[in-house]
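So, can you check?
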Amino acid sequence: MSLKTGFFSVLKTKEFLLFVIARFLITFATQVMAVIVGWQIFKLTNDPLSLGLIGLAEAFPFILISLYAGHVADIMNRKRIIQITVFGLLICALLLAFLSMDAASGIIATSTFPFYLIIFLSGIARGFFAPANFAFMPQLIQREMYPEAISWSSTAWQTGAVTGPALSGIIFALIGFKYTYLFMAFVAFLSLILYSMIAAKPVPPPNAEQSMNEKIREGLKFVFSNQVILGALSLDLFAVLFGGAVALLPIFARDILKVGAEGLGFLRAAPAVGAIAMALFLAYKPIERNAGKKLLLSVAAFGACMIVFAISKSFLLSFAALLFSGVFDSVSVIVRSTLIHTLTPENMKGRVSAVNSIFIGSSNEIGAFESGLAARLMRTIPSVIFGGCMTILVVSITAAKAKQLIRLQLNWKEKNE
């Protein structure tokens, strides 16, 4: 079976197709909520640090429970965990709608604290969802379909990340805060139904009888003793921590580019548009030779894109810079996911995915806090330029230290034929 044929044939697996659509829907819902909450809080505070605090409010509980959540994903029904957490995100959307009721109802929110509290709760839900969802996916397909399935799963996430921000401004302009949140609750409900249509899978048998702490330590040891996985995770951690500018996009949209809520949605969508294009390209043309070198160059190019975005005064140039940042970031996402899925034992994927989530998932939120703080201290444009330069510096240090990562090859064609 060729890679091209495999790329499309994996969608013939009904349960995987349901998984892909469900992942798209929940991603769409959470991305719309992220844009609208950011816009709403910035409207209340007019403070860039408040945008960074959104990321911190979500990242703190996410990090706090991730290792335990990974352990739970390795010993309990992964489908059930996914159902509970998606339902939790649905409830968060309903609570945000309640806080955003119009003044005629007498319940319009004037304080940001309730919003941060709901974001905190959504961080807990995401902390349990991420490892369970990551570990559940390979149970739906045969191992030889991993490269194609990873590309489709990434594409589903990125498509949700495109359409969510792109439509968020339009949806908000048409129906306002309250009904946008209610609509997102409905989308989350559809995702919950699709996940429920997938049969539960058996819990992988453990290697040996171990306590919870021993299992968590085993997962950590596996990651930190594997130089290739650790190098890829570390590279993304610091690149996203310093290089991201997503949290500051409301400032660029309103004060620098002057494109309003609709323009903000397109700016938020731009990286995911590029990422989808690259994910689909890599499904046809997988990275094999010099994968490590291409990974490093892509992350450096991501940093360069952030610098271009920071100095741009044109909406089209800013959109293009963000779009290409997504192109280069997608390389890292695909390579890292492939490494973890193929090198990690089935009964350890929840724990290893939790470590991956701490490195990567939380770095987006902590990066948002860093962006907000840096913008407060250095002003918006200099802070983004600084972040792009730091990303390039991190790549240089990684290239000097992680020799096994530089030599990384991914010979999928030989493994599958």
About this structure: The longest helix spans residues 146-196.
